[in-house]
């Protein structure tokens, strides 16, 4: 059940400009209460304004700011304490935040995700995972990506188990290093390293 109030204005010809406002009340999605409100403005190929909120049960997502021109900043937050109830076999909790700056041609920003007690369809389980990323602006901006995960169990239980996993990517688009390590079944470890470049722009 979806009950929404929408208001839109603007034009598509020449240099398009669009303003959209919405409000969701007394709504359901997958038998979960749905609510939200916000305002979005698009102008001349950029997100000129965003102030949006969406909630499903206890789970909430917010975004505010602007993106696409020098000096813009878009902040996104997601607080998802209960994933169960949406898709069969999905459970756990996730928190994430991101900050986007730069332009579409030269993006920049940072992001962080924390997850715990995850279960996804197919019987895959993960006790905890943390990921972070930072990207500097410019055509050859520096970036860092770090991923850490513990307690993975596959559908076969201990037959497919990873105690700890780490991934680290650091450098610039034209010269970066990749390091990965896995502790499998608590007895064996695997370590990999590589170095390379990204020829196409991100």
Note down, in words, how this protein is organized.
The mean pLDDT is 90. It contains no helices and 13 strands. The protein has strands at 4-11, 17-29, 32-43, 46-56, 59-67, 74-80, 91-102, 107-120, 124-135, 142-154, 157-172, 176-184, 188-196. Helices cover 0% and strands 72% of the residues. A 13-stranded antiparallel β-sheet has the order 1-2-3-4-5-6-7-8-9-10-11-12-13, with no helix packed on it. By secondary structure, it is mostly beta strands. Strand 2 (17-29) and strand 3 form a beta hairpin.
**Percent in strands:** over 45%
- Give the termini separation: 39 Å
Count of alpha/pi helices: 0
H and E string: EEEEEEEEEEEEE
State Rg: 21 Å
Order of strands, widest sheet: 1-2-3-4-5-6-7-8-9-10-11-12-13
Tally of strands: 13
Q: Please outline the major beta sheet.
A: 13 strands, antiparallel
**What structural category arises from helix and sheet content?**
mainly beta
Which residues sit in consecutive blocks of at least 5 with pLDDT less than 50? none
């Amino acid at each position: 059940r979806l009950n929404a109030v929408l208001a839109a204005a603007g034009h598509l010809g020449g240099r398009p400009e669009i303003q959209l406002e919405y409000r969701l009340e007394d709504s359901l999605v997958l038998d979960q209460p749905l609510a939200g409100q916000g305002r979005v403005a698009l102008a001349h190929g950029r997100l000129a304004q965003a102030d949006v909120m969406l909630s499903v049960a206890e789970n909430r997502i917010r975004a505010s700011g602007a993106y696409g021109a020098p000096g813009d900043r878009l902040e996104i937050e997601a607080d998802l304490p209960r994933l169960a109830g949406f898709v069969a076999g999905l459970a756990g909790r996730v928190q994430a935040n991101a900050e986007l700056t730069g332009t579409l041609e030269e993006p920049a920003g940072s992001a962080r995700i924390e997850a715990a007690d995850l279960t996804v369809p197919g019987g895959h389980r993960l006790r905890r995972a943390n990921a972070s990323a930072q990207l500097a602006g410019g055509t050859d901006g520096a970036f860092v990506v770090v991923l850490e995960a513990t307690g993975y169990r596959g559908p076969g239980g201990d037959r497919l188990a990873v105690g700890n996993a780490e991934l680290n990517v650091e450098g610039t688009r034209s010269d970066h290093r990749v390091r990965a390590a896995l502790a499998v079944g608590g007895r064996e470890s695997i370590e990999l390293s590589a170095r390379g470049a990204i020829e196409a722009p991100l």
